[in-house]
Amino acid sequence: MTLEHRAFMYGELQQLLDTAVPWLREGVERDEKVVVVVRETGMNAVRDVLGPDGKDVEFYPSEVFYKHPVRTLRDYQGIVQDARPHTVRALAEPVWHGQSPRETREWARYESLINVAFEHSGARALCPYDQSVLPQEIIEHARRTHPKFARGEDTLHNDSYVHPKDFGNGCDSMIQLVRPRHAEYRTIESDDLHDIRAFVGERAVGHGLDTTVARTLVTAVNEVATNAVRHGIPPMGLWIWSDDRDLICEIGDNGFWHADPLTGFLPPESALQRGFGLWTVRLLVDLVELKAGWDGTFVRLHVRR
Amino acid sequence: MQRASKSYPAAYAGQIHANLDGQAMDSWFQAERSVNAIRPGDHAWLAFSGEEERAHIIGDFVYDGLATEEKVVYVTDAPPDRLPGVRPRHGIELRSYTDTRQLRVIPREQACLSGRGRFDPDRMLRTLEREVDAAFDQGFRAVRLTTDFSWVLNEPGRSDLSQMLGCEHQFGEAVSPSTMAMAICQVDKHACPQDELVALRDTHEVLVEVNPEFDDGILRIVRTFEPHGLRVEGELDAARHAVFAEKLSLVTHERRRIHLDFSRLRFIDLGGLNLLAHHATGLPTDDGLVLDHLPADVENVIDMVGWHRLPGLARGQERPFPGAGGMAS
Predict the structure, then answer these.
(1) Domain range for A198
(2) Mutate which of B269, B281, B307, B308 to test chain A, going by most A C-beta atoms within 10 A?
(3) Structure pTM?
């Protein structure tokens, strides 16, 4: 069962309702699991128009559901798995405002990853883009991350669509890792990382992170550092610094890791699968940036206070 | 009784752990000590769950004493080669130690029974004093005493617990200031009600447990017997995966559900979680591994990942009280 992943450009709420509601109703009639994730402004309107047909539909405000792309992908996967043997039909409208360029890039990557993560799930996703408010850059991303467009009741083929691997490569090439001069540095000598954990824990608490966030950061740093020791080439080291509300840890080694652009983005079935470590690292912290080049491999973890 | 050196040998410089095992704790002064860290002046308590646990603790207590030229006194009616908790060890003939009087096995009648065959606390105390003096005269640097009190608690027509508590108290007062004497009072955990067990335990300053399977100052692994499994303390990272896997295998040979007590775990890396899942899925039964007393931070990581991604791992008992553990290192 293939995935149907369509973008839908609209300018007024009524357009959204005219296209989305009949489509949702169709899902209800076919006994699919129907999920609506839209911004709070549109939610009540969708609910009202659906009327009694919406009684088995699950509603989530986008502002709550779209907080962290890796976690959102995990949550969607949970919905798809829990719904089996029914397939899922989701009206899915991410949040695009109030983001740094880095965050926007990761949310665009997320839209692209949907195509791989749910490739064989039989799920249908309709992603509304409000053309009247969204910047052109976001609309461009939408063209490159959705294989199809919805227009009214029609489905149009999208020639601008690029494969998620290529899209991921594009995202990765945008990553610029510039380190401030005041970053503190510690060498990583072996997989006995007690001292590194103590150091990061201390800085995390000093930055004002609560204990749980500090501990998850320590777990994430430990994982990346362990990988550097196992697979990297010395010298290995850790830089740490704060940038306003962000605490940033970067682990580097001298190796050149040719990582697949999808590595660690797709939720693994279990901890026994390859990629579990990096995926969990992405899950645990706010943002992970990975850059490999001839000068080495660098993994940067961001956590916000 | 001042001949014994004040500077204890390295064997006594073991770690002292505050008791955080969640059992009712009335006394703040109680310390948990592995049996190899028992030192002169220790009046220690052992509520054993079964013969296996006792064999680990009392066996080490007795054999370590014999190996380090200390005197061992065991009050029991059993013969020297069948002392409770002392399984035969290759190449060691216990009877030869009774011949040299390094090992004294004193029948109860002689050590602590009244003329009417009842437990007599005063007589027990006199036996202690006599044996310590004798060890001093013989030139031993220390004397290790032990006995199993379970029978006293189950004596027909036993008076209330106060007699026993009084005895333990005096026993403690005699041992604590001593630079030579150390004692382990054994009781079968299942031989008396919980409240009596707690009351008796609290007359001891030291709680003795098995020697750790591993301890490098960062990670400490201790066998547990009830429930069957391991207590994992400190920090588990990739540098210690191999030893942890080895100890996990050690408790896996039996067809018993394995519990891992994580109450004192301060850190486990993702590779460690992977290792647990790997081990759990390879078990012959579907029981899996039970994770007891998960620290909130570890549970948080597992919750984020999802328990279903860690096949074979089951959430066990909740943490006894929140906040224990706290920020690592």
Answers:
(1) 177-304
(2) B269
(3) 0.89
